[in-house]
Amino acid sequence: MNIRTWRPFILLGLCMVLTFLSITPGTSAAEPYSMPVESEEARKLLQDSLSIVEIDREIGRIEIQQTKLRTLQRSLERDITRLEKDIHVRREQAGAVLREYYMGERKTLFTLLLSASSMSSFFRIMEFYDLIIQNDRQVLQAYDNEYRALAKAKNDALRNASQLEEVRNRLILQRERVLALEEQVSSGVLASGNPEAMSRLIQEFTLYWENVGLYEVKKHFQALADAMNNLPDFIQNGDSMLKTNGRQYSINLHEDELNRFLRSQNELFNTFAFRFNDGKVIAEGENGNLSLRIEGHYSIVNDPDNAILFQVDKLVFNQLELPDTTRLELQEEFDMNFYPKQLVSFLKATKVSSTDQRLLVTLELDLKNK
């Protein structure tokens, strides 16, 4: 069974769930849905179905981006056509000016200026000469501006066309992934002991993810992003977390200190904790029937600014790993990076590691960018 055919049933199921909740006392729509998974096969089917939902969302985002790029490309092509017409006129005007200089006509005006018979004649000729020179300069400057604008429009069009091709390839790739996953899920459902029950389980979990799970994951990422924005102040005011030998600074942050800081920022972190070990940063926690595990690592980037970038390598929701598209989307949407210049304006990070329960950062003076 193709998972896309389940979407109408999901909406119907949502209506039934909401109706049931409205007449059942003591039940909250926000309460996490408890869903037992009794086998590895069932877990794999649920994970694949969740990936289909998330990759479908990515396809939607790519299609929107593709539409915007196509609109921009059409606009750039119109600009190029207009500029090419304008520059033809400017080129002729600039050519006429340059020919006059080359043929010595402007020199004649200068000679006339020197042969003025009186001061009043001199200043009249001087004023006339100045007007001609200003006009020549404006003509040449206008041509230069049009030429630069045309060159920029052509470069923008080439770059945009390249992005369009990249987006088109991404769209094809994601659609192929969805088709392959749909086939896997359909085959898995048919091969299960109870296809009808498995289909219902997938529908219910999809509904739960779209209405509760995704919201909860984003809520945790938003809380992390907000907390990271305040981390520089915590380090600066902390006890011996920031040290220096005069030329080099270092940050030594124990995971217990980080967790204490996070819990002071948001009560969500009362059941959520960070661990540093073997180059990995692991954050995980449970709240009722909802569990979340984030695995990632820190690295140094210098473009556009020096920062300690947190990259999500693995994201697991209720024991189901989310696809790479979701990880990348969350990374782009929520800034969980650490910016050394928020700590001290003339510092830049040069090395970062996470081991033995500690996050270690080496910073050096960056006087040229102060």
Give the arrangement of secondary structure elements.
Elements: H1 7-23, H2 40-102, H3 105-114, H4 119-191, H5 195-237, E1 242-244, E2 248-254, H6 255-265, E3 272-277, E4 280-287, E5 290-301, E6 307-317, E7 320-321, H7 324-333, E8 347-355, E9 358-365
Word description of this protein:
This is N-terminal domain of peptidoglycan hydrolase CwlO-containing protein. The chain is about 60% helix and about 20% strand. The chain has about 375 residues and is of the alpha+beta class. It folds into two domains: about 180 residues, Helix Hairpins (Orthogonal Bundle), CATH 1.10.287; about 160 residues. Helix 2 packs across helix 5 and helix 3 runs antiparallel to helix 4.
- How far the N terminus sits from the C terminus, by CA atoms, comes to 61 Å
CATH topology of the largest domain: Helix Hairpins
Would you tell me the structural class of the helices and strands? Answer: alpha+beta
Estimated share of beta-strand residues: 15-25%
General shape: flat
How many beta-strand runs? 9
What is the total number of structural domains?
Answer: 2
Number of helices: 7
Oligomer category: single chain
Could you estimate the helical fraction of the residues in percent? 55-70%
Q: List SSEs in N-to-C order.
A: HHHHHEEHEEEEEHEE
